[in-house]
């Protein structure tokens, strides 16, 4: 999903460009602080990274490269449709007697996925993969072909629904082995970007003052800006992603993620069906048009934003209100108008119009 980030993204070109500002005093007397910032394309989306080092002498480029490496590592592991990926190999192993031995990172993503599955009562469930492929929302798992999203018949749904359910997977954490039942598939598209953003930040956080990594709107923030200003994250208008609907002012140690129905969808009788599937029914979720979750980590925010999309306004807000340090903003469309719905503390995070 596309979120514009604060003011740093303004003017950054699409190709990787790295800017370094040194510690100077600007003409209006406001101190400016050293930072390194860049934009690139990874995990099928735009990646924005901003790092505030402790001082000007720090080797910011080194820290910047470390964040890119962490994202690349997760991309290599968790892209279901990449034939070289570890997840692809795991999916191919479905039904194997001895299970499949996975890396520490893949096991960690799967364990966090299981936590999110349990926390959301199954609304977040990466085993919807066979349905996602059948609807044509993702690349084909074996041929890599792209297909056009379309609806499924009741017979197709009946055949595929028994293959859904994360509780059918056995994770042997100590042995590092995953037992995936025959016919099942895992799609980590709803959590991998958040996980990669956290991994990228956590890998350098103790060596820098503050870092923000944004992978297509799944954002991890650690530490502070040297100026003491909050980190700003804009929520894009789902019907006109170039426009900003609201802006969040956040302190470090959090994650933000957005799911919207505007990137991948199909339409039947003028109704829009999104790429997020309700694992209970096998049908595309269609109650809301965009959800933004703020949580302690980007991994959790990413998983929760998908779950809230499935659960809809009242169940979604009820879930988030139970969780500490977690908020949600949901947009629905009624009579052509966008309506915002907030969890209990969400409005406090918004930048008021007069402060902009
Ligand atoms: P995006 O990747 O567009 O930011 P999400 O984080 O919501 O959005 O992830 C959506 C992707 O997750 C879908 O493209 C699909 O691959 C997968 N998915 C769809 N429905 C679910 C679900 N209920 N639980 C987990 N993953 C899902
Ligand atoms: Mg998600």
Account of the 3D structure:
- By secondary structure, the chain is of the alpha+beta class.
- It has a domain at 78-179: T-fold.
- Helices cover 26% and strands 27% of the residues.
- The strands form 5 sheets. The protein has a 9-stranded antiparallel beta sheet. A 3-stranded antiparallel beta sheet has the order 6-8-7, with helices on one face.
- A hairpin with a 2-residue loop joins strand 4 and strand 5.
- Helix 1 runs antiparallel to helix 6 and helix 6 (192-204) packs antiparallel against helix 7.
- The longest helix has 19 residues, at 60-78.
- The radius of gyration is 20 Å and the shape is globular.
- The structure holds adenosine-5'-diphosphate (ADP) and magnesium ion (MG).
- The site of magnesium ion has 7 residues, from strand 13 and helix 7.
Unreliable stretches (pLDDT < 50, length at least 5) are 1-27
Secondary structure: number of strands:
18
Percent range of helical residues: 25-40%
Strand proportion, as a percent range, falls in: 25-35%
Shape summary: globular
Query: CATH homologous superfamily of the domain at 78-179 - what is it?
Result: ApbE-like superfamily
Average pLDDT over all residues: 87
Biggest sheet, open or closed, and with what strands and sense?
9 strands, antiparallel
Distance between the termini: 23 Å
- The strand line-up of the biggest sheet is 1-4-5-9-10-13-16-17-18
Name the bound molecules: adenosine-5'-diphosphate, magnesium ion
Number of helices, where a helix is a run of at least 4 consecutive DSSP H or I residues = 8
Taking all Cα atoms into account, the compactness measure Rg is 20 Å
Fill in the CATH topology of the domain at 78-179: T-fold
CATH class term of the domain at 78-179: Mainly Alpha
* Assigned CATH architecture of the domain at 78-179: Orthogonal Bundle
Instruction: List the helices and strands in order.
Output: EEEEEHHEHHHEEHEEEEEEEEHHEE
* Computed structural class: alpha+beta
């Amino acid at each position: 999903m596309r979120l514009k980030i604060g003011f740093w993204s303004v003017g950054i070109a699409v190709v990787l460009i790295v800017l370094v500002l040194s510690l100077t005093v600007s003409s209006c007397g406001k101190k400016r602080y050293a930072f390194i910032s860049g934009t690139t394309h990874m995990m099928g989306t735009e990646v924005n990274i901003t790092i505030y080092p402790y001082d000007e002498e720090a080797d910011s480029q080194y820290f910047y490269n470390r964040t890119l490496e962490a994202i690349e590592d997760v991309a290599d592991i968790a892209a279901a449709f990449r034939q070289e990926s570890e997840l692809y190999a795991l999916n191919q192993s479905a039904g194997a007697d001895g299970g499949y031995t996975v890396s520490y990172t893949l096991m960690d993503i799967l364990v966090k996925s299981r936590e999110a599955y349990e926390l959301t009562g199954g609304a977040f469930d990466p085993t919807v993969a066979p349905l996602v492929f059948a609807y044509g929302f993702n690349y084909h798992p074996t041929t890599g072909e792209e297909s056009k999203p379309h609806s499924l018949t009741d017979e197709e749904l009946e055949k595929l629904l028994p293959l859904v359910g994360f509780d059918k997977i056995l994770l042997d954490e100590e042995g590092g082995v995953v037992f995936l039942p025959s016919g099942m598939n895992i799609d980590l598209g709803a959590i991998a970007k958040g996980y990669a953003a956290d991994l990228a930040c956590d890998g350098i956080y103790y060596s820098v003052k503050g870092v923000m990594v944004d992978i297509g709107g799944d954002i991890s923030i650690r530490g502070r800006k040297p100026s003491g200003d909050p980190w700003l994250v804009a929520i894009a208008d789902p019907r006109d992603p170039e426009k900003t609907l609201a802006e969040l002012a956040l302190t470090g140690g959090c994650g933000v993620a957005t799911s919207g129905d505007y990137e991948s969808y199909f339409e039947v009788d003028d109704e829009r069906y999104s790429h997020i599937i309700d694992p209970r029914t096998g049908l595309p979720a269609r109650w809301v048009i965009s959800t933004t979750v703020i949580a302690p980590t980007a991994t959790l925010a990413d998983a929760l934003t998908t779950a809230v999309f499935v659960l809809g306004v009242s169940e979604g807000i009820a879930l988030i209100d139970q969780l500490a340090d977690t908020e949600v903003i949901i947009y629905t469309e009624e009579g052509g108008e966008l309506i915002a719905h907030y969890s209990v503390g969400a409005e406090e995070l918004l930048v008021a119009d007069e402060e902009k």
